[in-house]
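Z., the sequence and structure:
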Amino acid sequence: MIIIGVFLLCYLPLWILACYLAFGGEPSSEAILATHCFYASIMVWNPIIYSIRKKEFRKAARKLLKL
């Protein structure tokens, strides 16, 4: 559920913007910037989700941070 929710949160605005552009709309620069920020944020969310889901990753991260 977490992976699907974050995926939709990050990619759905880009898909909506692409559809808007395909139908001849002209979005504002703020809308384009916000859409690309959501799209780029997937790089931040992936390690967080991975660390939540994988027990071995959490152990290794704790060990690394203790050094």
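The helical segments are 2-22, 29-40, 42-53, 55-66. The radius of gyration is 17 Å.

Let me know what you think.
H.
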